[in-house]
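Structure Section — protein described below
Tokens — whole-number codes for backbone shape
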Amino acid sequence: MIVRMNVLYFLLIFIPITLIGHFMHLGGTLMFLFSALSIVGLAAVMGKATEDAAHYLGERVGGFLNATFGNSAELLINIFALKSGLIDVVKASLVGSVIGNILLVLGLSMLCGGLKHKEQRFNIKAVEADSSMLFFALIGISIPAAFFHTMTDSSIKAEELSLVIAGAMFILYILQILFTFVTHKSQFESESEETETEAPSWSLRKALIILIGVTVLLAFISELFIGSVEGMTETLGLSQAFVGLILIPVIGNAAEHSTAVVMAVKNKMNAAIEVSVGSTLQGVLFVMPLLVFISCIWTPMNLIFTPFELMALICSALITNRVIEDGYSNWFEGAQLLGIYLIIAIAFFIV
């Protein structure tokens, strides 16, 4: 843990480099690289703060907090992308965030945790609730696309239907919070398990203050990051769809990536799953509707995804649900999830 954080903290040096590059009007590729590394460094600080906060608040609340602040980086990036008119990049990043969290993050967590612990168990009740919500979220994403791919003569606008569905998903997200943390809180308490304990170096107050400060700094760096996307794609010959599907989610969700893996290595699979699957649900039920609402300020964004994107989402949810439904994991199941993610990434890169 200490080694991991020390290494990632070195990336904070790219924050002043990014600012200098901005005033010197560096090319898009260099600015993309510098700002991306800055975001990863800030995500490392965010991961440390949320992990310390989890020590005081409990694994599930800590995982929820990590998902919230972890998604803040991606949310800010996408808001500035909407402002710049990069709607296709935003929609691709939303899909990439889902498959990245439930395949890449969860897969890495199971792989790294399984290499140290032969078998890891987690709260099956919490997993079942999250799995049900995940499928509901995918249904909400699929309905607009299915409607407009079949009803070609419909007088309903895609943006109007997307706003209604976004509202329904946002309401269900609020209800999920009430169900998880208020009315049925006891069902989601972690079962006793052998874990490696490590005293937090930051107090709860300090951790929360740092989280807020990092989020503010992320807002500025994210704007520079999005401003360099078009120049970088033109220089390297990459499609904006690939940048949105793979690069932005990986960079924006760096906090979840690192924290979930560390939790799994410490045999805290309840927290690792809450970070990965919980972040996915939050991304679909909160971040996605919020972006639909915010997009009305500039150019309204709809929730019409391509058949290929929908297939990737459905396949990712099915294999993830199959892996976690028994309440325990091992390194081979993690390798399976990573294999599916690699296949999807290669397919999107070729397309």
